[in-house]
Amino acid sequence: MRSRGFTLIELMVVLVIIGLVTSLVVVSIGGDSHEQRAEEEVKRAAALLDLAQEQAILEGKEYGVEWLRDGYRFYRFQNAQWEAIEDDKLFRPRQLEQGLVIILYVEDDNVPLKDVSGAQAEPQIVLYSSGERTPFELTVAAPGSRSGPELRGKSFGRLQLEFSDRT
Description:
The longest helix has 26 residues, at 34-59. This protein has one domain (34-163): minor pseudopilin epsh domain (minor pseudopilin epsh fold), CATH 3.55.40.10. The protein has helices at residues 8-30, 34-59; strands at residues 63-68, 71-78, 81-84, 94-95, 101-106, 109-110, 125-127, 136-141, 149-153, 160-163. It has 2 helices and 10 strands.
C-alpha cells in the first residue's frame, strides 16, 4: 500500500497563492496616509493655480481663489464683481478629504478660514491678468498636525512646493 501525500510542487504552488493573497490584502488595507493625501492635495492646488494664472493672462481677466476650512473655490472677476465658477470641470469647487487642515497666510498674515462660502464672498488670493498674484503660503496638514506640504506663491514667478514646520 502506497501512502498518498502532496508533492513538493503542489506545496510550493499553495504557498505562492497564499503569499499573493496576503500581499493583496496588505496593499488594499494599507491605503494612503493622511500625509500622502495632503501632498496630493497641495500638488493638485498648485497645478490648478498655475492653470488659473495662465487663464487670467490669456483672457485678460482676474481670477481668484477662496480657501475654506475644507476646500476651495475659484472666482472670475467680471461685470465689476467676483463671480464663483461653478460649471467648469477644472475650476469647479474642490473639497479636501475629511480631517485635512488648511492653514493659509496671505501677505504674511494668518487668514481665518470660514466653514462655507458666503453670498458676497471674495477670494483671498487674486491671480491678475498681468501675471502677478497675491503672495501666499498654503499648508495642508494631516489631522492633529500643523505642518505638512506647503505651497508658496510670491508676487511673480513659479509656485514653490516645500515642507513646513510652522507652528
